[in-house]
Amino acid sequence: GAGVSQSPSNKVTEKGKDVELRCDPISGHTALYWYRQSLGQGLEFLIYFQGNSAPDKSGLPSDRFSAERTGGSVSTLTIQRTQQEDSAVYLCASSQGTVKNIQYFGAGTRLSVL
Amino acid sequence: GDSVTQMEGPVTLSEEAFLTINCTYTATGYPSLFWYVQYPGEGLQLLLKATKADDKGSNKGFEATYRKETTSFHLEKGSVQVSDSAVYFCALTGMDSSYKLIFGSGTRLLVRP
């Protein structure tokens, strides 16, 4: 597609349930990033992929969070046993490379944990 | 570690007023600096960038100059429009982790007709 696509745009879930958030990067972009935007913490880096590998997972807040990327394209961010503090907007971005390359962002998935 | 500090909002201006949003950073060496904008209901969009000292980034009438001596990257626009109402984020990528955007807290701008 023309831009980074994320789905769903909104997700409401109950505490303790698992959720999966999907990101379709711009075609041909080798690097993919996940960020989280929350009221208390602002915009935080979560994880980055180069191809299907994740050289830096340091921003994942706990072991309930995981992400994978397949075929050098689509990525899924999974949150297990969701907690209320996981409520945030999850943003995905992609870029052609990583060194001084512009990151293009999707519109995000707004997650609400009740 | 690397960090970005930007002025708190909201900033409320009348149309055609001059805009300055202050941004300072802490980083080793020479980071790359960015301004991103988030319009209501939309994702982040790159507004402008600068990758070395004294570079000036510009786009859509917005400008920012990379000042190494003051570790600043202030955003300016000479005459704002109602359509500029959005949240503006200053960000950097450091030399050690050039893939990771580190954002400021964001500044909401509201332009009144």
Shape field of chain A: globular
Structural class by SSE content of chain A: mainly beta
Instruction: Count all strands of chain B and give the number.
Output: 12
Poorly predicted sequence stretches spanning 5 or more consecutive residues of chain A: none
Give the overall silhouette of chain B. globular
List strands and helices in order, with pairings.
The complex is a heterodimer of chains A (114) and B (113).
Chain A: E1 5-7, E2 10-13, E3 19-24, E4 31-38, E5 42-50, E6 53-56, E7 65-69, E8 75-79, E9 88-95, E10 104-105, E11 109-113
Parallel strand pairs in A: 2-11
Antiparallel strand pairs in A: 1-3, 3-8, 4-5, 4-9, 5-6, 7-8, 9-10, 9-11
Chain B: E1 3-6, E2 11-14, E3 19-21, E4 23-26, E5 32-38, E6 44-50, E7 56-59, E8 62-65, E9 75-77, E10 86-93, E11 101-103, E12 107-112
Parallel strand pairs in B: 2-12
Antiparallel strand pairs in B: 1-4, 3-9, 5-6, 5-10, 7-8, 8-9, 10-11, 10-12
Describe the overall structure.
- The complex is a heterodimer of chains A (114) and B (113).
- Chain A is mainly β and 114 residues long.
- Chain A is 0% helix and 52% strand.
- In chain A, the strands form 2 sheets. In chain A, strands 2, 4, 5, 6, 9, 10 and 11 form a 7-stranded mixed β-sheet that branches. A 4-stranded antiparallel β-sheet of chain A has the order 1-3-8-7, with no helix packed on it.
- In chain B, strand 10 and strand 11 form a beta hairpin.
- The model of chain B has no long low-confidence stretch (mean pLDDT 94).
